[in-house]
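Model it.
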Amino acid sequence: MADTAAVYGLIGAVGGAVLGAGGAVLGPLLLHRRQAAERRETLVRQEERERAQQRREDELLRRQQQFELQVAERERQAAEERERAAETHERQRVTTERLNRMRSTTRAWQLLLLDTYDELRNGRPVDRVAFSESWRAARAAVNEAFDEALHEGLWFAHAGAVQTLMSRNASILRALERNDHGIDVTTLGDALSAATYAMTECVEAGIPLPAELAERARSRLEHLSAAREALSAYIVGRLAALGVDVLGGPQADSRAD
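Modeled.
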């Protein structure tokens, strides 16, 4: 019995020692595992926070890039609009200048004839050479003005026999091929030619001015005035269509607009 008790005692002692040793080893191991698990969880949460922060930064970057693209597109569109506006303004300016030059050159020619008529009617002779040079210069200015207007697509149909406003190049044919917007100035060409011829006869007749020539010249000048008023009305309409503020109108000048 004593031996058995001793054996049991030994077993108990050994078991206790084993258990004690196991606890000494297992305790730190479990603690280490728990700490490792906590570190893993911390790392996972940290990674999730970092990923969330990266997503936010990526979204902000995407929005910033999108905003910059929108700004760049608006700036591009605004630049295109400014360019188109500048081109439109320049076209309006050039067209306005050419239309006004048509009006001013025909007015200058008409005023030359009117002034010459007034001089003769008032008993003051007119030098025929000076008059011839003046009306030829006026005709050249009118031809040049009408030729320039053709470059704007403004064509002016007139009879082939009327050389007064006949272009000396192919501008008319090119303009006719380009569009169908224009005005028939056959009447104006005829009126300028007829009035100039009548005034030439009056200048050559001298003072006193024969009544028949004076009446013929007066009639031709009235016809020319009507023809110019038609041209001026057309020009005013074209300028208004361009958005140009037209002051006055075909009758702005009591003698010739």
